[in-house]
Write a structure and sequence with these properties.
binds NADPH dihydro-nicotinamide-adenine-dinucleotide phosphate; Rossmann fold; single chain
Length: 238
Amino acid sequence: MLTALITGGSRGIGAATVRAFASAGYRTAFFYRSSESAAQTLAAETGAYAIQCDIRDSASASAACKQASRLLGHIDVLVNNAGIAQQKLFTDITDDDWHAMLDTNLSGAFYTSRAVLPDMISRRYGRIINVGSIWGQVGASCEVHYSVAKAGLIGLTKALAKEVAPSGVTVNCICPGVIETDMLSCFTPDDLSALAQETPAGRLGTPEEIAHSILWLADPKSGFMTAQIIGVNGGFGE
Ligand code: NDP
């Protein structure tokens, strides 16, 4: 049976991805940081294993990957989805803001990918799917640190894909546009309606639409698709 590990699975896009993989018959595990109750509810609903882990911490991420591998038997699919966002003028970004952003959105994916890859390489099969952002592709005003972290994830995707392709492992990056999750809680209803109007599809995306594209990339038949940066954005920012 195929297996999947999803980071940031307690809410939003991650939770929709856990549901999509569990429904598709994957044995599934997911990481969460602080949303204990949401994580346990999702685990009970889907049968997935919930594992507490702070992705910013190398030791925590590596121990949690080992635990996931023990519970699942092995890991076929890793979805690096955990992330945070923040809106600030560039000159107001503190050192702590900067490090928290890069540690969560970029270093976390490095720690988990490094932990699961040796086994994927020895089994000659694996799928790593990073969740980037349209802002990593085009840059966003007042979100420079977020844009930098997501652009880094795009670089990680392209370079790592080349390194591990001969071992049967694919690495791709899904870049969502504006998706209805808690991450948008800093926006007013007027802001959200403006963002929907700016999106050629005329609406915001849903977490399920992102989960669907992740599941498609994870499919064993998607093995010739690697090093790709794929926008799922309703035409936004294109
Ligand atoms: P949410 O804020 O809804 O969920 C974020 C998830 O990440 C939660 O499960 C949270 O866990 C987890 N997380 C955050 N920090 C850590 C950490 N240090 N260690 C472990 N887990 C952590 O976000 P979305 O679902 O909207 O976003 C998911 C991904 O999609 C992110 O990478 C985001 O940047 C990206 N994205 C989202 C867009 C959007 O419009 N929503 C647009 C483009 C990209 P917990 O709740 O337990 O703390």
